[in-house]
Write a structure and sequence with these properties.
The protein is of the alpha/beta class and 135 residues long. It has a domain at 49-133: Nucleotidyltransferase, domain 5 (2-Layer Sandwich), CATH 3.30.420.270. It has helices at residues 18-34, 80-91, 109-121; strands at residues 49-50, 61-65, 71-73, 76-78, 98-103, 126-129, 132-133. A hairpin with a 5-residue loop joins strand 2 (61-65) and strand 3. Helix 2 packs across helix 3. The longest helix is centred in the first third of the chain and has 17 residues, at 18-34. The protein starts with 17 loop residues before the first helix and ends with a strand. The model has no long low-confidence stretch (mean pLDDT 80).
Length: 135
């Protein structure tokens, strides 16, 4: 009489996941610490310094003024007439839109004020002159 052979149930092979998860988290931490989170605006200007500078958190329209007094909107140089038309188009019907003028610290004040006047005439409800925090 043949006895039935009882086969033992095999345990499924499991890969140890603990060390794999540790390595993934270490890589994640490494890349988070080594990534540069600074955003380069593309136009090289040195902002004036101020002791009471506060970070800007809301979405704004930014106009750059370089050392020669040229105006840039979205990294493209624009003439004063084009700046007026482009700002009017961007502002649209929002009367409380904030326009930030980021003028180089060596630019003549009259040129920065002229850009601010163009923005105000285009319908900007609020104007701001960007500065750096003085360390």
């Amino acid at each position: 009489m043949a006895l039935p052979v009882k086969r033992k149930a095999r345990y499924p092979i499991q890969m140890p996941m603990t060390s794999l998860i540790d390595i993934v988290f270490l890589l994640l931490i490494y890349f988070l610490l080594t990534t540069n989170f600074m955003v380069d605006d593309g136009i090289k200007i040195k902002l004036p310094q101020a002791n009471a500078a506060a970070p800007q958190t809301e979405e704004v329209i930014t106009v750059f003024v370089d050392t020669q007094g040229r105006a840039f909107l979205e990294d493209k140089e624009v003439s004063p007439g084009q700046l007026f038309d482009r700002l009017r188009e961007k502002i649209g019907s929002r009367p409380d839109e904030l326009v930030v003028v980021r003028a180089d610290r060596t630019v003549i004040l009259n040129k920065a004020v002229r850009i601010m006047d163009i923005a105000k005439a285009a319908g900007a409800g609020r104007l701001c002159l960007a500065t750096e925090k003085d360390f």
